[in-house]
Amino acid sequence: KSGMDSAAMAKLGEYSVLLFGIFVLGGFANFARVYLFGNAALRIVRSLRSRLYRSMLMQEVGWFDTKGTGELINRLSNDTYMVGTSLSQNVSDGLRSVAMIGVGTGMMIYTSP
Asked: What sections of the protein cross the membrane (predicted)?
């Protein structure tokens, strides 16, 4: 009986190390996701602001009379930031969900042949 207990303990140790490795790998993957999508959001915001600013410079002079300064500044700062971050966040969440569905399906197939 003690031989089986030591074999079971050895198996438990192997599974514990494997689980720990999976959690560490998941942590690194999450860090990479947050870092990369954060950088992507900043690049999107910069591109949007640049394009919007160029578009504003091409407007007729009368267009500036109809738009308030606060509205224009708000468009350049807040609106572009919100669009960029929501785009990158939604793409990030979507990719994570697809990965979770794939892993979950694989686990279900593996455990229930």
From this structure: 15-36
> What is this structure's pTM?
0.65
How far apart (Å, rounded) are the C-alpha atoms in residues 44 and 90? Answer: 13
**CB 33, CB 98: distance < 8 Å:** no
Please say whether the beta carbons of 66 and 43 come within 8 A: no
Whole-angstrom Cα distance, residue 9 to residue 5? 6
Distance CA 90, CA 74 (A): 23
* pLDDT tens-place string over residues 88-105: 888 888 888 998 999 999
Reported as a single tens digit per residue, the pLDDT across 12-36 is 888 899 999 999 999 999 899 889 9
Q: Token pair for residue 20?
A: 């720990």
Q: Whole-angstrom Cα distance, residue 3 to residue 72?
A: 76
* Residue 48 in tokens: 């949007």
